[in-house]
């Protein structure tokens, strides 16, 4: 386990050192960005509508009962942009993109493609890892912005159409505008950025460490997704704690 | 389309190489020298440590003990790998499956930005023609046979214009006709570029057909080393058994 953690930090450090080469690898970054962004956008939108809807459905009746229906927009808005959208989108992307990264790089490791790169003096960190981590670090926060907007819309739709809640869309968004500030969205985006780095680094690291044929690739994919999700959830607490303290 | 290239080939020296994976000692103090421009064949049965030895030479593995020298300097000397052009043709070809044949062949030039794009395309076409695969630039590796993949891997190595080229089982899984073509390519490449070539194989026909010198390796040790005719005359029992092994039907 400690070797894994050491390997993760080392890979991340090497990727940071390679950052000045990002422009040179822009084509690969764009390819990855397209895969992460465009490939996930529809799924992110569908999930966000339902996450916003469920959030409204869960807390709406309770707040209406206590005469707090005017605050519903703000509560749903804050819950989504500060916590739910960043965390759930990160978990979704860990499953969709992290697994793909680990599988692709793992398969290259098993079939000696990475050895072939090394023999050509092509650094696998520059060629494979840098474009993926850069793309996910930019792409995931952008997806979360979409998730925030669509999630708010989902919450508003449920609030206005559910007879138990019956809060109009105008009232929902008026309260959301009063309550949610730019710093709340930024709070979520900072967490998302860190989650993106975690997914990219963990998945690429697992891919590079793959040994043992197709079974090894399967093991790496599972470890990449599970480790990413575990780290996301643990880091979520500490990051929230830190950011809340900074905000105060 | 053969281009005469004036290369300074390199001299390779292995001194007392030892390597273990867990409890299994794969290399047990291997020493040899490969002269500039020589075709040196490492021959031996499967699992004898040949491929591991090759990986040490290209820098993919590090020895537990002993050292590898290129032109008298340790292969791990800072910047040495940038000073000499080395290429390896893998047993499986090891083509990047996500790239087309043309992109695979031009990968080295594009990644190191050594030539303008037009020139790179011309070089790709030229190298593919040399290995008999003209016009296959747009194919993907999945569409190629095993022999074609190996020839693409050879073209990819040619692009580097290597001073040292390593071949890992270049004729395994190939039919005899393609195996002969590959053997001829190895010879032609040496004649054209004067590159030092190290070939790992268990194919006796290939070894005796192309080698300037042969080292017979088994269980991580070199049993015999010399010119092909010297190795043929070896009295070492393992070497004799390897060289004379043949199918014999038991009488019914």
Summarize the structure in words:
The complex is a heterodimer of chains A (248) and B (252). With 248 residues, chain A is mainly α. Chain A has one domain (2-239). Helix content of chain A is 86%, strand content 0%. Chain A has helices at residues 2-17, 26-65, 72-110, 113-119, 124-161, 169-179, 182-208, 213-247. Chain B is an alpha/beta fold and 252 residues long. Chain B has two domains: 12-85 and 161-244, Rossmann fold (3-Layer(aba) Sandwich); 97-160, no CATH class. In chain B, helix 3 (101-111) crosses helix 4 (117-130) and helix 4 crosses helix 5. Mean pLDDT of chain B is 88; it is low at 1-6. At the A-B interface, helix 3 and helix 4 of A face strand 6 and helix 3 of B.
Q: Do you know the CATH topology of the largest domain in chain B?
A: Rossmann fold
CATH level-two architecture of the largest domain in chain B:
3-Layer(aba) Sandwich
Approximately how much beta-strand content do the residues of chain B carry?
Answer: 15-25%
In total, the number of strands of chain A is: 0
Relevant terms:
heterodimer; A: 248 residues; mainly alpha; 8 helices; B: 252 residues; alpha/beta; Rossmann fold; 2 domains; six-stranded mixed beta sheet; four-stranded antiparallel beta sheet; 9 helices; 24% strand; disordered N terminus
Give a short summary of the structure.
Chain A is mainly α. Chain A contains eight helices and no strands. Chain A has one domain.
């Amino acid at each position: 386990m400690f070797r894994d953690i050491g390997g993760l930090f080392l890979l991340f450090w090497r990727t940071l050192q390679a950052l000045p080469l990002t422009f040179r690898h822009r084509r690969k970054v764009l390819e990855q960005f397209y895969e992460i962004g465009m490939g996930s956008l529809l799924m992110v939108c569908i999930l966000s509508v339902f996450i916003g809807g469920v959030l409204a459905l869960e807390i709406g009746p309770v707040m209406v009962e206590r005469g707090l229906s005017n605050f519903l927009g703000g509560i749903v808005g804050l819950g989504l942009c500060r916590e739910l959208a960043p965390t759930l989108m990160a978990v979704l992307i860990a499953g969709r993109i992290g697994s793909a990264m680990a599988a692709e790089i793992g398969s290259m490791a098993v079939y000696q493609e990475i050895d072939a790169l090394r023999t050509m003096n092509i650094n696998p960190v520059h060629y494979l890892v840098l474009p993926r981590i850069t793309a996910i670090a930019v792409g995931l926060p952008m997806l979360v912005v979409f998730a925030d907007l669509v999630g708010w819309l989902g919450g508003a739709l449920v609030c206005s159409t559910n007879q138990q809640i019956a809060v109009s869309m105008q009232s929902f968004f008026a309260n959301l505008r009063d309550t949610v500030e730019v710093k709340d969205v930024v709070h979520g985006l900072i967490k998302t950025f860190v989650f993106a780095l975690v997914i990219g680094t963990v998945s690429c690291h697992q891919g590079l460490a793959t040994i043992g044929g197709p079974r090894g690739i399967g093991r790496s994919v599972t470890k990449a997704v599970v480790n990413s999700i575990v780290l996301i959830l643990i880091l979520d607490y500490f990051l929230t704690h830190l950011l809340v303290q900074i905000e105060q | 389309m053969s281009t005469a290239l004036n290369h300074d080939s390199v001299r390779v020296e292995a001194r007392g190489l030892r390597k273990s994976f867990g409890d299994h000692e794969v290399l047990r103090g291997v020493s040899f020298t490969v002269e500039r421009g020589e075709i040196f064949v490492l021959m031996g049965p499967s699992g004898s440590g040949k491929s591991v030895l090759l990986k040490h030479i290209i820098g993919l593995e590090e020895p537990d003990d002993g050292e590898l020298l290129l032109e008298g300097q340790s292969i791990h000397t800072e910047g040495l790998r940038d000073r000499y052009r080395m290429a390896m043709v893998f047993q499986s070809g090891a083509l990047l499956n996500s790239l087309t044949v043309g992109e695979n062949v031009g990968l080295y030039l594009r990644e190191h930005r050594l030539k303008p794009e037009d020139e790179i395309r011309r070089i790709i076409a030229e190298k593919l023609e040399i290995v008999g695969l003209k016009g296959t630039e747009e194919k993907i590796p999945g569409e190629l046979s095993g022999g074609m993949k190996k020839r693409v891997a050879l073209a990819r190595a040619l692009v580097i214009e290597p001073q040292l080229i390593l071949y890992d089982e270049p004729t395994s899984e190939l039919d005899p006709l393609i195996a002969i073509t590959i053997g001829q390519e190895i010879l032609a490449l040496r004649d054209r570029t004067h590159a030092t070539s190290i070939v790992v194989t268990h194919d006796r026909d290939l070894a005796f057909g192309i080698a300037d010198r042969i080292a017979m390796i088994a269980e991580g040790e070199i049993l015999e080393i010399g010119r092909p005719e010297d190795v043929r005359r070896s009295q070492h029992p393992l070497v004799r058994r390897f060289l004379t092994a043949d199918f014999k039907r038991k009488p019914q």
